Amino acid sequence: MPPSAPAAQPASTRFRLPLDWLGVAPFLLFALLFLILPTMNIVIGAFQTPAGEFTLKNVQGLFTPSIMAAYWISIRISLASAILGCLVGFAMAAAVVLGGLPQWVRSPLLTFSGVASNFAGVPLAFAFIATLGPIGLVTVFLRTNLGIDLRAMGFNILSFWGLTITYLFFQIPLMILIITPALDGLKREWREAASILGATGRQYWTMIALPILFPSLLGTLALLFANAFGAVATAIALTGSSLSIVPILLFAQIRGDVLGDPHLGYALAFGMIVVTGIANTIYIWLRARSERWLK
């Protein structure tokens, strides 16, 4: 007998997949309009003339001394804020997860970290100018009550270290949020076994805990570097034109005045995409390695 024809599927089954995907449609649309298409436009514009012809002149312009110096300053600021953010954030997370701090400290710290890691732009710049600026609250207090003049000591909120300290406000909380699950993954049995075998606390950290956490630490360092390197609004709002870094040069090229070169701005943005893309790739690769250890 010939095989019978398959029964027709109910209408609800045939339309199940589109309805399931409908829930993520707003996210996909948002990513397409504000991430994928703008990135493609930047990459294409970096290799075009104003007339739409292909050229390498824009990318070659990135290797001029002034632009290379701006990239170098941006890399140094990003690296300094990432290293300091990792050190301070790791110490705070370790104190909450593995230290002797009360358990009730953890929830407020993680809640604040979730808010502070997304606090940037003009509000953050204003907060630090009002706190550490020439007539900021802390600056005036130190000068009036303790005789410490930050300006006379060479500190300027509109300088390299001023911008680095400002970035730490969101770098440290981001480190706490990322490294806390990795610290939670350290099994108590590992420390107990090390103690039974006669290992000291220092030996446990140097020979067991830190080697396991090392991929997570390096990956988070790469992520914090990319996070600082791509911070545009905070740098522009805080330093204006007093510090020549890539985001400020980019803003100067695309703001629309007669001195600007939008396609050179596309090339600057393309260079930022390459740098942050490399950093994020390193982070994803190292995080995948650390997750295999912590399972």
TrEMBL record:
Gene3D superfamilies associated with the record: MetI-like
InterPro entries named in the record: MetI-like, MetI-like_sf
Bilayer topology: Multi-pass membrane protein
GO BP, sorted A to Z: transmembrane transport
GO-annotated cellular components: plasma membrane
Spans through the membrane: 21-47, 59-75, 82-101, 121-142, 154-183, 203-225, 232-252, 264-286
ABC transmembrane type-1 domain span: 71-283
Keywords attached to this entry: Cell membrane, Membrane, Transmembrane, Transmembrane helix, Transport
Domain of life the protein comes from: Bacteria
Subcellular location: Cell membrane
Family listed: Belongs to the binding-protein-dependent transport system permease family. CysTW subfamily.
Name recorded for this polypeptide: Putative spermidine/putrescine transport system permease protein
Organism, as annotated: Mesorhizobium australicum
